[in-house]
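Field log, afternoon session.

UNIT: design team B
ACTIVITY: writing a sequence onto a fixed backbone
BACKBONE:
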C-alpha cells in the first residue's frame, strides 16, 4: 500500500504516492472523501481548483515535471534555495519534455492528505517530517492549513528552476544559431516552445485560483494566513511574467532561425542559378555544333575544336565578369 503517515500534535500528515484502486478505496473508507474526487484523480481529468466540502477543503494543482526530474536527489537544504541555481546543460543536450503532474491536497480538521505522482518536493518534505522532530514542528506545528501552505509554496517555488532551465536552453539555442549549428536546432526550438505553452497552461489556472480566492467562501483558509497566500500569488505572477518573457525570446529566436535558413537557401539557389546561367549559352553552342552541319562557321576548319573551346571560355569569363560587376555574388 502506497500510503505513509506522520503524526504530530494531533495532526496526521498522509502521503499517498502513485495511488491505485486500493489506496482510493482506503481513503474513501477512512476519511470520507467524495468518490468523484478520488475517481477524477485516477482518470486525470481534473482541473486546478479549490473546493470546500462539509468536512474538508480540496486543492487540485498541476505541477510541471520534466522527464528526468524524478531522478534528481533532494538534499536537506531549504528547497527554496534551489531557485537560484541554473542547471548546467550541455549545448548539445536535448531539452527535457515537460508534462503535468496532478496533486490533490485534502485538508481536514486534524489531517492533511496529499495524493501525487512521485513528486520529489513532496517526498522530500514528508521524509524530513519523518526524520526529525524539528522538521515536524516547522511544517506541522501550526495545523493542517499551514502545512498545506508549506506544501503549495514549495511546489510553486519548484517551478523556478524549471524556468531557469528554459532560459538556459533558449540561450544554448541562440548560441547554436550564432555558431551555425542547425542540425538539431529546429527540434530544440519546437520542444522549447511546446514546453513553454504546456507550462503556461498549468500555471495560469492556479494563478486565477489564488486571485479569486473569496475571503467569505474560504474564510477558514485565509484566517491568519492571508499574507502567506498572497506570497504564493506573488510567486505565481512572477512565474507567468517569466514565462511570457521566455515565449517572446523563443519566438524571436525562431524567427531569426527561419530567416537564417531562408538566407542560406537563397545563397544556395543563387550559386546554382549563376552556374546555370553560365552553362546555358555553352550548352547551346555545344548542342548546335554537335549536329555536324557543314554550313556552320568554323565547321570545316581543322582547328574548329580549339576555336569553339576558346569562344566558350570567353563567353563563360564574360558572364562571370558581368555577374561580378553587378554584385550578384
Amino acid at each position: 500500500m502506497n500510503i505513509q503517515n506522520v503524526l504530530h500534535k494531533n495532526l496526521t500528515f498522509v502521503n499517498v504516492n502513485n495511488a491505485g484502486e486500493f489506496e482510493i478505496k482506503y481513503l474513501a473508507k477512512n476519511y470520507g472523501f467524495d468518490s468523484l474526487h478520488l475517481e477524477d484523480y485516477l482518470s486525470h481529468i481534473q482541473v486546478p481548483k479549490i473546493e470546500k466540502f462539509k468536512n474538508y477543503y480540496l486543492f487540485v494543482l498541476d505541477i510541471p515535471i520534466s522527464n528526468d526530474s524524478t531522478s534528481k536527489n533532494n538534499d536537506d537544504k531549504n528547497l527554496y534555495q534551489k531557485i537560484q541555481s541554473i542547471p548546467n546543460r550541455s549545448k548539445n543536450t536535448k531539452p527535457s519534455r515537460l508534462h503535468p503532474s496532478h496533486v490533490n491536497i485534502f485538508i481536514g480538521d486534524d489531517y492533511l492528505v496529499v495524493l501525487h505522482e512521485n513528486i520529489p518536493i513532496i517526498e522530500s518534505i514528508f521524509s524530513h517530517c519523518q526524520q526529525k522532530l524539528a522538521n515536524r514542528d516547522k511544517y506541522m506545528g501550526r495545523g493542517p492549513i499551514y502545512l498545506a501552505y508549506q506544501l503549495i509554496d514549495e511546489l510553486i517555488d519548484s517551478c523556478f528552476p524549471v524556468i531557469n532551465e528554459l532560459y538556459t536552453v533558449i540561450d544554448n539555442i541562440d548560441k547554436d544559431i550564432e555558431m551555425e549549428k542547425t542540425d538539431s536546432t529546429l527540434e530544440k526550438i519546437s520542444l522549447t516552445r511546446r514546453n513553454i505553452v504546456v507550462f503556461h497552461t498549468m500555471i495560469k489556472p492556479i494563478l486565477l485560483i489564488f486571485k479569486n480566492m473569496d475571503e467569505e467562501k474560504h474564510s477558514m483558509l485565509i484566517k491568519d494566513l492571508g499574507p502567506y497566500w498572497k506570497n504564493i500569488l506573488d510567486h505565481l505572477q512572477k512565474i507567468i511574467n517569466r514565462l511570457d518573457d521566455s515565449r517572446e525570446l523563443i519566438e524571436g529566436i525562431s524567427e531569426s532561425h527561419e530567416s537564417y535558413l531562408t538566407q542560406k537557401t537563397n545563397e544556395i539557389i543563387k550559386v546554382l542559378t549563376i552556374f546555370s546561367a553560365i552553362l546555358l549559352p555553352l550548352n547551346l553552342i555545344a548542342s548546335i555544333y554537335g549536329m555536324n552541319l557543314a554550313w556552320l562557321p568554323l565547321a570545316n576548319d581543322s582547328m574548329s575544336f580549339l576555336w569553339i573551346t576558346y569562344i566558350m571560355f570567353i563567353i563563360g569569363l564574360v558572364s562571370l565578369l558581368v555577374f561580378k560587376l553587378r554584385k550578384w555574388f
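LOG NOTE: The mean pLDDT is 81.
NEXT ACTIVITY: expression trials, pending approval
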